Amino acid sequence: MIDFTWKVIEKDLQGIAKRFSATSRNIANANTPGYAKRNVSFEDQLRDVIESGKKLKMTRTDKRHIPSLPHSVAAVRPAETRVTDEIYRLDGNNVDPEREMSILSETRMQYTAMSRFAARKLSGLRSAISGR
């Protein structure tokens, strides 16, 4: 049975992978006139799910009411958005290569941290199974 922590780890790694992809495309298109950079966000949604036990549950009494989403880790969707309201260069391209490289480094560190966390959790499970 997969517990809540594994679901969070999986969703976090999916979001990080999507951010890697978007940031790589941004860097690859840094010299493409008119290219609008892409950002990926998912941490706020994931944090809301993790902290949902601390919040008052809202009930929808009508299908037209706005749901307070997400309700589960599976409902978290990493959102990729085009940034069109920032101008970096006169040709319409808004990619700052230095900023994108720092985002790439930060994303790599997040991936490394989450991978190590998953490895430690797996090691603990292995120890419990083997009776150590």
Q: Could you characterize what this model shows?
A:
The longest helix is centred in the last third of the chain and has 34 residues, at 97-130. The chain has helices at residues 4-28, 43-50, 97-130, and strands at 38-41, 79-82. It has a two-stranded antiparallel sheet with strand order 1-2. Helix 1 (4-28) runs antiparallel to helix 3 (97-130). The protein contains 3 helices and 2 strands, in the order αβαβα. 51% of the residues lie in helices and 6% in strands. With 132 residues, it is mostly helical.
Keywords:
132 residues; mainly alpha; two-stranded antiparallel sheet; 3 helices; flat
Explain briefly what this protein structure is.
The chain has helices spanning 4-28, 43-50, 97-130, and strands spanning 38-41, 79-82.
Write the layout of secondary structure elements.
Layout: H1 4-28, E1 38-41, H2 43-50, E2 79-82, H3 97-130
Antiparallel strand pairs: 1-2
